[in-house]
Description:
The complex is a heterodimer of chains A (331) and B (288).
Chain A: H1 11-14, H2 17-21, H3 24-63, H4 85-91, H5 96-129, H6 137-144, H7 146-149, H8 152-162, H9 169-177, H10 192-217, H11 222-230, H12 235-246, H13 248-263, H14 267-273, H15 284-294, H16 298-330
Helix pairs in contact in A: 4-16, 5-10, 5-13, 8-14, 10-13, 13-16, 15-16
Chain B: H1 14-41, H2 46-50, H3 63-71, H4 74-105, H5 111-120, H6 126-144, H7 152-176, H8 180-188, H9 193-204, H10 206-222, H11 225-230, H12 238-241, H13 244-247, H14 253-284
Helix pairs in contact in B: 1-14, 3-14, 4-7, 4-10, 5-7, 7-10, 8-9, 10-14
Amino acid sequence: MTTTTAPAGGPAVDTSPSGAAAGGPRRRTGRLRRIGLPYLLLLPALVLELLVHLVPMVIGIVMSFKELTQFYIRDWGTAPWSGLDNYKVSVDFDAPVGEALLHSFLVTVGFTLLSVGLCWLIGTAAAVFMQDTFRGRGLLRALFLVPYALPVYAAVITWVFMFQHDNGLVNHVLHDQLGLTDKPSFWLIGDNSFLALLTVSVWKGWPFAFLIVMAGLQNIPKELYEAAALDGAGMWQQIRRITLPSLRPVNQVLVLVLFLWTFNDFNTPYVLFGKSAPAAADLISVHIYQASFVTWNFGTGSAMSVLLLLFLLLVTGGYLALTSRGRRTAA
Amino acid sequence: MTTPTPRSPMAPPRAFLWSRRIFLTLLTGFVLLPVYVMVSSSLKPLADVTGRFRWLPSELTVRPYIDIWSTVPLAKYFVNSLIVAGAATVCSVVIAVFSAYAVSRYDFRGKRVFTVTVLSTQMFPGILFLLPLFLIYVNIGNATGIALFGSRGGLILTYLTFSLPFSIWMLIGYFDSVPRDLDEAALVDGCGPLRALFRVVVPAAIPGIVAVAVYAFMTAWGEVLFASVMTNDTTRTLAVGLQGYSTLNDVYWNQIMAASLVVSVPVVAGFLLLQRYLVAGLTAGAVK
């Protein structure tokens, strides 16, 4: 990163005036304070992350080994241990619970791949097209960020209205105006719900890719393009040879973040379909939520969450190893 | 096309211009369609939104904007959301400033562990710690009498940790880009480290801090999952409250659209006003 001006070893601290002015004991407390200061500064963030993320995660793992039904919620410590039972139930793909989880997992994988791919593609294309200034560019940029800025529930509830069977815009256009379908379709139940979910997810998600790629483009030195143009490279060639390769490091993080957010997305399907999603669009977060809060079986829900976390760790680790190695050999 | 000129000032090839025009036009349509539906439907009488969809209202009315406040206690939800999102934003930004300053300006043991740990919490599925957090809050409440579950405090605490990792990450990059000579000079002049932070580094990093604040506010304003589990009737936020219009016998779509618009205006306006800072902040920090 940008450690250009700084020599190694806490340069800002060493010039602290307290030591220079005063003698022995004050100097020692001064140094103690200086050593402790960074930790003191980090303390609030650390405590909060521990309380809200890390401790709950550990407890979640413990819970996944317990028979934690509604009778034990008040005092979950007394819930009996159940060994690996919760996991066995979750991955027994011949029984209904496991089968439903596997189905939900596969739907989520398919949905995530499509959504991330489309978000990235649209976001990158828009950012590259808007790299040069033209009239109305600023306005367009602001417009494109609106889906990202809108609160999820407000945006998604508008889509719910548009997807309504009798009074929605989508059926009005496809059926009444264009005559593409024999009769009005159902969008929020049945197989079409996958398409509806994907549409909303891409509509909501691509501006983030746009934002990040746009920021990434500003770090590409102009001289590169000038040199390429002097060598006779055309517009498309410049995009392929300079723009896209320069975006690699940005893309490495962007795609990962998009993947994790999309895979874990709860808000969009929850507002779109309510508490129980149709089978075709049964994303894993909503599935686990339902398995936990509707049936009040926290043990099995936790086991499913832990399995999900393991999967995400595996994918993230593999992805980072793969892309980092690719980058190293390319460099 | 064959004349060798630098990219920016030269006229791009026609094919490029046309594909740009078509692509951006289609994209604008896709982006604006729901916005149009939201705005136009919020000005329609009820008959227009219960029957077949109409592109234009049969008559323009502001009735929905009056009725939304009485159909559900929208004002109460609004205030709750403002308190929760506002408090979460302030806390998150202050804490992120401290952490980023420590990471950016000091060398200490465990620095890398800290940044990696904080960032990796972004990866956890919310559903994984929702259940335990629910139990922790309930048990803390039972043991100490501090009501975190169902209270605004619990929600503020939860939301501020959601935006914290990204905020710290972005501010580290931003603080790194503020020349160290500046705060070193302040230290030599006799400022303590904290005064150097607030007198020198923070003012120089205002765009980054604004960007982080916008992000934190949007995160808290839009969250649904934890809000749906951790609030009760008195602390309900907009994320949950807005669904009140659709659980009644009649679905007042015009009111839903009006309410959606009303709750979106503060964030969208704020975001569009400050998006310049967000892009600048991302350019300086996150994507470097």
